[in-house]
Amino acid sequence: MRGFMRYLEKTVPPLRFPEKYTVITGRTGSGKSSILDAITFALYGKTTRTDIQSVKLADVCRPNGYVRVAFHQGDERWDVTRGFTTKKESYLEVTRDGEAVQGTIPDKERTIRDVVGLDYDGFRNSTFVRQEEMKELGAASGSERLAVFQKLFRLEIFEQALERAKERFTSLKSDIQAKEAEIAAREEALGRLPGLQQQLGSLDDERKVRGGHVSKLQTDFELHAKEMKDLEAKHERWVKSSSALEDRTTRLKALEARVAEVRDQGQIATKLEPERALLQKETDDLDRLREDLDRLKETKATHQQRETAARASGREFDLAKREHEKRRDEIKNRIDELHRKIASLRTDIDRETAFSSLRDEGRLEERVTRIARELAWLSDRADLVRELSEEQARAEKALARVHEKVASIDQDSFVLTEYKSQLEQLKDDLRREADDSHRLIQPLDDAKIEALRQLDAMPFSEQDERRLDLVSHSVLEKTAKRKRLDELAILLRQVGDVSARLVDLEMQRKALETERAALVTELTGLRSSEDAFAASKAELEILQGELDAERKAWHLLEGQAKALKEQIAALEADAKKLKESERQRESLRGELEIYDVLVNRVFHKRGVVMYAVDQLLPELEIEASKNLSELTDSRFGRIRLETYEEGRGHGIRILVQGVDGQWHDVAEFSGGEKTQINAALRFAIARELASMPQIGRAFGRMKTLFIDEGDLGSLDTEVSRELFVQKLLRMGEVFEKVILITHLAEVADKFPGRIRVTMTPNQESRAEVLA
Hints:
By secondary structure, the chain is an alpha/beta fold. About 70% of the residues lie in helices and about 10% in strands.
């Protein structure tokens, strides 16, 4: 496991169960039962926690977490790994003898169910005996016990069958009602068949009469159409000539308007010529003024750029200079502060001088001592004694001076050394600052001077500014006049030679009048034929309208006749469908009777469910009685399970023969005795479930039994617990492996295999194999 529930770290090595009997121990809440949830999570994607609707798989397994379960089924080894990626996407991997099983997650889950032989409910109830299930049998009511048995032995399949049967029963009743309504509708529709056939005969007669009218109108229409064809050529000439006459008339009117316009333009041109000459004279120097304006603007822009650059260079130089002076003053202030600190010290001897004085003191003391010994040795040598005495006096005098220095050594000597070191460092910093300031500030000063020189080389005075304003104003004023001058020039070019244009227009007018007179004469000759064409066209349109109306009525009758034929054909076909619907109704009624029996007799709780429970109870009584005798050391030895019916309710009653020989309800016994009775029943149920076949699957006999706690805490004597453990060990006769989860150390000591689960201070579960 990794990242599953509170098993955040990977369980290394993996949890194995090599022994036939293994116990999982640990304090309450340490994560023992989570091992069972991990197994069902890997195999089925479910846990007892996710059985609660509000808990999702993502709540029990973190991103990048997983559970891997390996097991043998027959001669094959299977590995199943289920988890979530870092992106919270679920995955499932299945291998058989090291070869990956392909397919989607649902495909792989079906493979697991086929291999194990059990689905989730069957696996959990036949393989796991949980603490809460050990308690609920004895404490539950009769109806609740019946529900527990239905759950454990998966008899809820009959309840599901009942619901399915009820759904089918209701569906059949609806189908029969719909089929009866369909039959009634078909019978009613067949009653209209004679009337529809009579109506179809009447429509056929009327359709023949309408057809004769349509033929006659069609003949008349074709005769008038032939007469119209003879008049169409003259009509086309009339239309063409009328259009041409209208065109010539329109062009004459436009030509007359154009002549008046040309005459007006000639008068305007005569008036505008003096204005054009004056504007030409006033705008002759516009181009020169524009050049002066561009030159002045360029000079001003360059002057402003250089002025801005000069100010920027000055600010950069001043800023660098102030920064240098600030750093220099800070260093000087720190130097002055150190001088004041040095002056306040009690000694002027630094650490090196102190160490040197101490070395000198030791050396001189040794020298004085050595000379004294030598004087004693050479007392009979006067010449050497004199030299040694002089040397001794010099050494003692030097030693006295050194003693004075040593006497002035204290803790300030070390502080003085540190201050001097800092002082030297600050002096070096001050020299570096002076060098750096010269290296950095000098280029900035040169750049400032160069910027000022370039600014002086491009002057722009107030007089230049006034000249710029004056020229700009003149250019704007003369530009407006130049625009007006261009407009007048264009207008005068458009006017051109007025007299020549008037002669040309007069010639065009005479030609158009000649053409118009010819068209009028032609139209007068065509008037009579055009009137005859209009009259013939009107009569033809009347005939066309009558013909269209008769055709529409005729087609309407044909459509009605066709619809009646389709209805009659459909009703004739319905006569056959009616017999089929009656046969289907009888079939549905027969099926309804079957599902009525299933709902009210077979799948009802009074039926097959209670029958199935009654078949299970005798075998369970025998096994449970045997288990109870072993668990109580033959103090109790008989359990009786019986069903009962009370009003509309059903239940299971658990009776135990007491020491008095009488039968008592399980509720009458003490807590520890109830635990023993419940355990006897649950072990019997586990044995029965482990060998039961599953519907639609192979036999699902499980070879491993997990007991979660088993309610051992309620067994108040060591003997009772010992008998419980011995019974667990005897369960090995049925199961290849028995694994107990408990927090009781005295019980755990009885098992050869042991796994201890602990909780770290960080609330993480850890599993450790002890034996």
